Structure formats: C-alpha cells, structure tokens
Amino acid sequence: MDFFTVDSLFNKRFYVFFIMYIKTREIVYFDLTTNPVKCFVEQSIEEMMWKRDYKNIHLIYDWAGEFCFIDYKSCNITDVTTS
How do the domains of the chain map onto residue ranges? Predict the structure, then answer.
C-alpha cells in the first residue's frame, strides 16, 4: 500500500493510491486523489473490502501520516509497518 504521483499537462498533481499483492505484483486496488489524507485512505480500504471477499489480509506500509492511526482491525486486516 502506497502512493505515487502523476503530474498533468496543466500543472496539477494527482496522487495514485494503490494496494498490490507482493507475491504476484498484481494491483488489487487503486484510486486517484488530489489530497492524500487519512480519510481518503480509510475510505479506499473500505471500498476495496466491499468489492472483493478478502480474508486474512496483511497490509505493509511505511510510517506516512496517511497510513498511521487507521483502525485496520475493524476491517479484519493485520497491519505490518516498515521500520
């Protein structure tokens, strides 16, 4: 789970939020925003969980402010942070 940026021709920056399987490198979910905040990440995770029937998920993320302090356990997700 992470973000990358895309700059448009009109000098506007977009942030692409994505979640992928590490083993297969398959993109499981992605979403686009101009304001990458915690609320956006929470909403994206909830949408991902509704679209597919996931069980026993482990999300790996860094200590960016958008990913910290989210209640992953309420979505049955085990969170793993990088050091």
Answer: 2-81
| Helix (H), strand (E), coil (C) string for 45-65 | HHHHHHHCCCCCEEEEECCCC
Q: What is the pLDDT of residues 31-75, one digit of tens each?
A: 999 999 999 999 998 888 887 766 778 888 888 888 888 888 887
What CA–CA distances, in Å, run from 55 to 2, 18, 62, 77, 81?
Answer: 21, 19, 22, 8, 19
**Residue whose token pair is 């895309």:** 6
What is the model's pLDDT at position 46? 86
Q: What was the pLDDT predicted at 81?
A: 82
Of 80, 75, 43, the closest CA to residue 60 belongs to 80
Count the helix, strand and coil residues of the chain and give each as a percent rounded to the nearest 5: 20, 35, 40
DSSP state of 39: H
